[in-house]
Amino acid sequence: MKRLNKNYNGGIESTHWKIADLDFSTIDLAQVALDENLFYLVTSASFIESGSSLYTQNLVEYYRDEPEIEDWLRNQWEVEELQHGQALRAYVNYVWPEFDWETGYRHFFKEYSDHCKVELLAPTKGLEMVAHCAVEASTAALYRALSRCTTEPILKEMASLIGRDEVSHYKYFYRYFRRFRKEEGLRRHRILWTLCHRMLEIKNQDTSCALRHVVQIKSPSHANDAAYIKNISKKMNEMVRRHLSADMTIKMVIRPLDLPPMIESMVTYPLTQIMNKFFLR
């Protein structure tokens, strides 16, 4: 069962996966249900992905005078991002049915919405596009790592499919960024600052917010225990780091800087080491 989506690179139609393609009944519950790291990682991701409509609305408003971009944001990006959230939620509900996903997400969304406002977007359209390059590169890396760190076939497939979508989304944001870069005359130092700033936001706001609200439902007695939550975060990050393609992620993140090949080669390795440490925080 496949869905046809409009392809925004010239009108060619392409197939896209559906949740119905994933047979949850084949999941070996004994294999994954007791994996606490996996639970926190998948459930946190399901909260963030399910909030896609909020930041899509912000971007649609921000790019309301750009019909092609607005159309893609509404009719492809939002649809696919929300599908990611629905698929992850379905997985959580199947494997961990005792977890009250709806209540946890409701509390998460209330706090998360304070971080997702139009006035908090980057100051120019080009810089917001490059900020989303960082977001898509980071999330693609996360799902590639998730696909590698589990042996459960359905989660492995789902994470791989979501990761591919994120790479596709990156390509669109990058293409639109290149157009705005010329129009706005963006210099490398502004691009670099925006990339770093948005990646820190993902780590310090989005992920931490989701994890806190997952813990609040999973272990209410530890809801306000910062050390407990930090320890869970550390274990999650260690699992991701062990399976992370940091060099590939760095190449995606720094691509908007348009560095000369020699310079790019020189900075990739040290930045890869920084990326690995970033996932240990």
Under the CATH scheme, which class?
Mainly Alpha
Strand numbers in spatial order across the main sheet: 1-2
Q: Order of helices and strands, N to C?
A: EEHHHHHHHHHHH
Question: Beta fraction of the residues?
Answer: under 5%
The assigned structural class equals mainly alpha
CATH topology: Ribonucleotide Reductase, subunit A
Unreliable stretches, pLDDT < 50, 5 or more residues?
Answer: 1-14
By CATH, the architecture is named: Orthogonal Bundle
Number of helices: 11
What general outline do the C-alpha atoms trace? globular
Provide the gyration radius in Å: 19 Å
Secondary structure elements and pairings:
Layout: E1 3-5, E2 14-16, H1 29-32, H2 36-50, H3 52-62, H4 67-95, H5 101-112, H6 125-149, H7 153-184, H8 188-218, H9 226-242, H10 246-254, H11 261-278
Antiparallel strand pairs: 1-2
Helix pairs in contact: 2-4, 2-8, 2-9, 3-4, 4-7, 5-8, 6-7, 6-8, 6-9, 6-10, 10-11
Task: Report what the structure shows.
With 281 residues, this protein is mainly alpha-helical. It has a single domain (27-278), classed as Ribonucleotide Reductase, subunit A. Helix content is 72%, strand content 2%. Strands 1-2 form a two-stranded antiparallel sheet. A hairpin with an 8-residue loop joins strand 1 (3-5) and strand 2 (14-16). The chain is globular and about 55 Å long.
Give a quick rundown of the structure.
The chain has helices at 29-32, 36-50, 52-62, 67-95, 101-112, 125-149, 153-184, 188-218, 226-242, 246-254, 261-278, and strands at 3-5, 14-16.
